[in-house]
Specification:
Helix content is 73%, strand content 0%. With 260 residues, it is an all-alpha fold. Among the domains are: 105 residues, no CATH class; 55 residues, no CATH class. The chain is elongated and about 65 Å long. The relative contact order is 0.09.
Length: 260
């Protein structure tokens, strides 16, 4: 059983801003770097909309000497195409063979690699990469959240809560992390702790769809069907056409409520 992740909160393009800001050089070299940065951004944009075309373009770019930015774009395109295992392998390989100008991007690449392994269903590899990376950067909030998702995915909610505790100690105002921890507490049947977390999350972000969905779940478990219905209906209004709304509609159907 998995925790409910915030839709879109786990982006596959973690490196774009950093890479565009990091190109070194001056004069003619700087102009070439600016051109390569623009090509990288165009490739990454294409990976979002037409990943098959992006993969072909990135592979051609690699053949022409595009180096690490081209390889990263190819890996992201593989991810978008659903070739998660190949993407995970390529991202890990890239992280271990970065050129000197790009070594500062190793941690974000490993984060992406673990996400790819998890999407491929290789929980053991995802956990191993996340744990090894956390040994190097123990307070990386996104990595802690990712590992919590991994351990929750195999039903180890106690371990997930431990990582989310650490993440919240560095980012106490992150409503999405509080919602994830609320879900983990619910799976452990610690409803009071779950409700406290989700109420804190909604105090920070009153229209958070995952928070509303989770509070509705908790209200239903506590016998408050009217309150659950209100929360789930609100999810469908504030975040239509999202996974949270789909889950809310499914829950409403179980209460025999027709959503207009």
């Amino acid at each position: 059983m998995r925790l409910s992740a915030k839709p879109g909160s786990r982006t596959w393009v973690l490196l774009l801003a950093a890479a565009l800001a990091a190109w070194p050089g001056g004069g003619a070299a700087q102009n070439a770097d600016i051109e390569q940065a623009a090509q990288y951004q165009a490739c990454m944009d294409l990976a979002d909309t037409a990943p098959d075309e992006a993969l072909e373009a990135a592979e051609t770019w690699v053949d022409l000497g595009g180096s690490d930015p081209a390889r990263h774009c190819a890996a992201v395109a593989l991810m978008r195409l659903g070739h998660y295992e190949a993407a995970g392998q390529e991202l890990e390989t890239l992280a271990g063979s970065l050129e000197p100008n790009y070594t500062f991007l190793q941690i974000p690449l490993l984060i992406q690699a673990a996400q790819a392994w998890l999407a491929a269903g290789n929980v053991e590899r995802a956990y191993a990469v996340q744990t090894a990376t956390l040994a190097r950067e123990p307070n990386n909030i996104e990595l802690l959240v990712d590992r919590a998702m991994t351990t929750a995915g195999i039903g180890n909610f106690t371990a997930a809560i431990a990582d989310l505790d650490r993440a919240l100690s560095h980012a106490p105002n992150r409503a999405d992390i509080r919602v994830l921890r609320a879900s983990a507490y619910r799976f452990l049947d610690e409803r009071e702790a779950a409700l406290a977390d989700v109420e804190a999350a909604l105090a920070l972000d009153p229209r958070n769809p995952e928070g509303l969905l989770e509070r509705g779940n908790l209200r239903r478990l506590n016998g408050n069907d009217a309150g659950a219905r209100d929360d789930w209906l609100l999810v469908t209004r504030v975040a239509p056409d999202t996974p949270a709304a789909a889950a809310a509609q499914a829950n409403l159907a179980k209460l025999d409520v027709k959503v207009e």
